[in-house]
Amino acid sequence: MTPDLTAASAFVAATGFELAEVTGTRVTGHVEVGPEHHTPWGVVHGGVYCTIVEGAASVGASAAVVERGQFAVGVNNSTDFLRPMTAGRLDVLAEPVQQGKTLQLWLVTLTREDGKIAARGQVRLQNVPLPGS
């Protein structure tokens, strides 16, 4: 069974992240953040950014290897929180830095409506066999 890579997992979807484009070389989408994403101090929780970064990279990296009977699992996620946010739209762009036979490295940026980057992350992923293949 080939997974549907056009829909985020339930966990990622809980953040509100909506995928727009999914290929093995580019993933785009957006999320509207607000009070439901806040820390007790009223700013978006860093875990939201990490989840979106990992989700976008995982979907793109998996799309790149699905025809080989593989999917990609994150082995490292390094996300930087550059600007605090309280509410608004974040545009998501994920692109590979390197795609090898066993490992991939993806860069993901989350950009505010004013064009400034709120967070960016790199995810290292390992290509592994799809279950049942």
TrEMBL record:
SUPFAM superfamilies named among the record's database cross-references: Thioesterase/thiol ester dehydrase-isomerase
Keyword DNA-binding applies: no
Keywords, alphabetical: Hydrolase
rRNA-binding in keyword set: no
InterPro entries documented for this protein: HotDog_dom_sf (IPR029069), PAAI_dom (IPR003736), Thioestr_dom (IPR006683)
Domain Thioesterase: 42-118
GO cellular component terms, A-Z: cytosol
A GO term, aspect molecular function: 1,4-dihydroxy-2-naphthoyl-CoA thioesterase activity
Sequence similarity: Belongs to the thioesterase PaaI family.
Record-linked NCBIfam families: unchar_dom_1 (TIGR00369)
Identification of the protein by name: Thioesterase
Organism: Modestobacter caceresii
